[in-house]
UniProtKB/TrEMBL annotation, chains A, B:
Residue stretches spanning the membrane: 374-396
Name of the protein: NADH:ubiquinone reductase (non-electrogenic)
EC number: 1.6.5.9
Domain External alternative NADH-ubiquinone oxidoreductase-like C-terminal stretches: 356-410
PANTHER family: EXTERNAL NADH-UBIQUINONE OXIDOREDUCTASE 1, MITOCHONDRIAL-RELATED, NADH DEHYDROGENASE
Length: 436, 436
């Protein structure tokens, strides 16, 4: 606090929000005009629209069009301040947080830190596979894919050449399915023309999923529909199969199948991201923190957690709610009301998730949508998917740019952003670790 | 050549082009349908539209919209092959070049490698100032500016705080003028709203130029007009002044003035970029290589140089032509014809530069244009500048995206891309050096 020129609005209770994701943003917006003093901290100076990261990774969109400056979102909101910082420790006894730019006191603390890739303890998988939870990670993935294609042209050893052209996606959730489909389209429409000297049939795409179906939480129809779409597009879908080991070249599956590959995307699991300071016994599986029906962290009255990092076992979800944007946003909106109720000494309202449906896109004219008991798929589902995602983007400029790119790609079968802006270098690892 | 699957068109003479800038692209395009086998090498897989790098650095444009995949430019050109590689050495005796991905033989070699920042031997300036010749460098600059602004908010020491808010641009050529103007507009229209807790008047912008005027090669009217525009916008223009030393914090000028600053952009000089293998005595000042009126490198009949890296002293330009895109493009176009003449044993045609004029933009509605003896400035000049730059961009998608961004910025007074995608870290220096 010493070096900081921060001047919170006098006398208003200090609400400190860690994280500018879907939950933190909704909470902050809903607290506009309220008599609180908000401080938001994030390690990035922008909000990331995670559902479209796979399009950045596969050259369909610029990184800048799915990110939005956090300061800009709350421009003119008088009770809001932002600090671009890493939060290191929460000190509940002193009601402060320790960050990379100093200490900040709170009256109410909201942890909205989201989730990161979960390698289930495997150092090899963490080191050798590519995650895709942030914009820098997506750009690394884009660079790696394009670099390996370039390298395949000058590689004579057949095993190494095959490894450069085999793509394995571990995890058949929405991210894995969308990524597999997107690489299949890149192969069909772009790479064939870009690399005339490459036999495009030597490029293989595998989607590996441990459970008996892709898109776990969706309807049976969507699961089967997505699998069919993927197979039509030339993706090899391996169900009931897990990655057993990977050393950067040889990937071994639980079926004992071996794949030589230099391109492994890890989307097989996530875990909550959390600063130090909350005792270990407050956490459940997947690094999520136990919260009650008001999103209060177990054992505290002034610390809350919302979104991916929170595990609420009331409300009919024994293992916590799904890690999706609508949950985080609905929890953020309710928490803004509950914080005001708390200040007014009124009783709190418990959280009740309103599931509006789920969807995934596999490729051009190919998507699956579940809304309640209703299922549909194909071209109409694809347009619904695009409309919903376009409208969910923060900022009009971003919506226009994304729309222009989509329309362009639809008619030209092209992807505009297949540039290796920053070469990816696994050996130095700086790219991978510097950007968290 | 051993590992490479390269199969050049049988029997056609091998034309190897190093560099996919304005010159290399024009040459390759003009050789379409000719009976030559072209191999282009570039360390990036994309062409960079350098005149708009300053807009990437100041958050006005996405990097992807001013870059274009090289493979895509020549899609379908049967006599073209591309390799993404660094060229290390030219071996004229064996008629091969040695690259990071192997050796390639040539019948005719064209060096179109362009220019890089020139620090005139100062290691300090090279280490502590920021260059802006490539897309990664522009993104570093953007990150640094935004990081220093964030840091200034939590900095209490007044000297350090001032250093974070002082911006010095060394060199008053087009790049320096455009950058100074762009930061001034960022200050006025964006930062004031983004950082309500910052006293925006403490942010100072200096443009330092060694000669008696900015925009050296332009008309007196343009020089004075640009200076007036800059001063109107709050930029301190220091003429007849050079940077004497800079240690990362204290900048000393030739007038003995000292400025504490952490933001120094270096645009005070360029030098030719050249692989090893051409003898030292073939070079002139600024690292350019001597060429004759046919762009043949002095002493060779099969090695050519075009664009920034070439110094042609015929054609009325004693110190070589100006380092601008039209020179490179005109030389590329003529060389394509001369190569065919050479193959047909016809006499070559000497190069004659057709100067179509020059222009620079300072800010919204503020530009200067010289066409022959005609000078105009202001809003019409600004629209001319925009039109010419838009039309010069490679690719329709890029033009649409840039236009959308410009229209958006014009009406909203906003910049869409003020994101710190990759934090800049001078200490590790990986970001600065890895991307060359």
């Amino acid at each position: 606090m010493d070096k900081d020129t921060l001047k919170p609005s006098v006398n208003f209770p200090k609400v400190v929000i860690i994280g500018g994701g879907f939950g933190g943003i909704q909470l902050t917006k809903s607290l506009k005009h309220k008599e609180v003093s908000i401080l938001m901290l994030d390690r990035h100076n922008y909000h990331t629209f995670q559902p479209l990261l796979y399009q950045v990774a596969t050259g369909g969109l610029e990184a800048d069009s799915i990110a939005f400056p956090l300061r800009k979102i709350f421009k003119g909101q008088k009770n809001f301040l932002f600090r671009n910082a890493d939060v290191e420790t929460i000190v509940p006894e002193r009601k402060v947080i320790v960050t990379s730019v100093g200490e900040y006191a709170y009256d109410y603390l909201v942890i909205a830190t989201g989730s990161d890739s979960n390698y289930f303890g495997s150092k090899d998988l963490e080191h050798f596979t590519m995650p895709m939870k942030t914009i820098p990670e997506s750009l690394n993935l884009r660079s790696m894919i394009l670099q390996n294609l370039e390298e395949s042209l000058v590689e004579k050893d057949p095993t190494n050449k095959a490894a450069l052209l085999n793509f394995v996606i571990a995890g058949g959730g929405p991210t894995g399915v969308e990524m597999a489909g997107s690489i299949a389209e890149l192969k069909k429409h772009v790479l064939k023309k870009d690399y005339p000297e490459l036999d495009i049939n030597t490029l293989n795409i595998y989607l590996v999923e441990g459970s008996p179906e892709v898109l776990g939480p969706m309807s049976k129809k969507s699961q089967l529909g997505a699998k069919e779409f993927l197979e039509e597009m030339g993706v090899t879908v391996l169900l009931n199969t897990r990655v057993t080991s990977y050393d950067g070249e040889k990937l071994v599956l639980s079926t004992n199948q071996e794949i030589y590959t230099k391109n492994v995307l890890w989307s097989a699991g996530v875990r909550g991201v959390m600063p130090d300071g909350i005792p270990m016994d407050k956490f459940v599986r997947g690094g999520r923190v136990k919260v009650d029906e008001y999103n209060r962290v177990d054992g505290y009255t002034d610390i809350f957690a919302i979104g991916d990092v929170a595990a609420m076992s009331t409300d009919g979800y024994q293992n916590g709610h799904p890690g999706v944007a609508p949950v985080a946003m609905q929890q953020g909106r309710l928490l803004s009301k509950n914080l005001i109720r708390l200040l007014n000494k009124e009783p709190l309202v418990p959280f009740k998730y309103k599931d509006k449906g789920s969807m995934a896109t596999i490729g051009r004219n190919k998507a699956v949508v579940d809304i309640g008991k209703i299922h549909f798929q194909g071209i109409f589902a694809w347009f619904v998917w695009m409309f919903v995602h376009l409208m969910s983007l923060v900022g009009y400029r971003n919506r226009i740019i994304v729309l222009v790119n989509w329309v362009w790609s639809y008619f030209s079968y092209d992807r505009g952003s297949r540039l290796i802006i920053r070469p990816f270098n696994r050996e130095s690892m700086t790219e991978k670790t510097d950007n968290k």
